[in-house]
């Protein structure tokens, strides 16, 4: 098995150090948004850090910001846990690892902005190392990505997000962006709704010498590029939309669409299922939930409205970097 090449505690420690630093950097950048968006004299919302230990081994640091002027809720979570026997959600793709000892570490975040014109965003980078129950060599893989869920999309923002994704992938090979972009479109898909969760980004899993031919160092370098890419992608989108005026109806639509986010996370998201199955810390696993969301029975947006355009045009996989199918709101059938 070529997956076990060259992994040791020093390398695992280096990843851990990077992840803790990434968590700090992202929290600082998001707090800066609060300071820049705050009214003079208003106290700015800050992240509250919650350090926890897991009875089975390991622990983490959950940083949560609530009720900000710009960000309604953000969770930026670091965890490094030890697992005595892998749960089914982790071993179904790797039957040889059933019952194996393992450790998993990563940073995962979801940011729910207050203004409906700023998209919800999600990012995750993680490393998984397992030691087979029969005492074989350790097996490791990296996973992660980031994706964007707008309510009132701006075409230039969506294109910018995908440009950042494309640029960070380029040094690793021309096929990396198209492969991981398509994987993201497929993964963040609500089958029961027949729509994508958002406008995508990157998603990858099981990244190692077997799947991509990359050694540990290259996989780790890609993790670092994705972590930095999230900030390069989201901060300009915040800056250009956070002061856009919005109506009560637009806020109501944002809450309605957040309901889809909740549906996805509870029904399909592998990280949520893995966390709950592996006796994870429930508060940290469900921190991705928005503070408010709503459901409406048989809601149908009117043709030609921005709300119609969201599902009719944006929530479908597209080649955002080479758009030939520009959307014309006057002709909603023109998709």
Description:
The radius of gyration is 20 Å and the shape is globular. The model is unreliable at 1-5 and 330-335 (pLDDT under 50). Helix 1 (9-37) packs parallel to helix 5, helix 3 (155-169) crosses helix 4 and helix 3 runs antiparallel to helix 5. The protein contains 9 helices and 9 strands. The strands form 2 sheets. Strands 1-2-3-4-5-6-9 form a 7-stranded antiparallel β-sheet. It has a two-stranded antiparallel sheet with strand order 7-8. By secondary structure, it is α+β, with helices and mostly antiparallel strands. The protein has helices at 9-37, 88-91, 155-169, 176-187, 216-241, 248-267, 270-277, 282-285, 306-314, and strands at 48-53, 58-66, 71-83, 101-113, 120-131, 139-149, 189-190, 195-196, 200-207.
Q: Major beta sheet, specifics?
A: 7 strands, antiparallel
**Given the structure, what is the number of helices?**
9
The ordered H/E elements are HEEEHEEEHHEEEHHHHH
Q: What distance lies between the first and last C-alpha atoms, to the nearest angstrom?
A: 47 Å
Structural class: alpha+beta
Determine the mean pLDDT. Answer: 90
Residues in β-strands, percent? 15-25%
Residue runs with pLDDT of under 50 for 5 or more positions: 1-5, 330-335
Provide the gyration radius in Å.
Answer: 20 Å
Q: Looking across the biggest beta sheet, what order are the strands in?
A: 1-2-3-4-5-6-9
Number of strands: 9
Oligomer: single chain
Overall body shape? globular
